[in-house]
Amino acid sequence: MSRGALPLLALVLAASCAEVPSDPPAAACTPGAYDSLVGRSLAAVTLPADLPQRVIRPGEMVTMEYRADRLTLEVDEGGTITAARCG
Question: Using an 8 Å Cβ cutoff, are 86 and 68 in contact?
Answer without folding.
Answer: yes
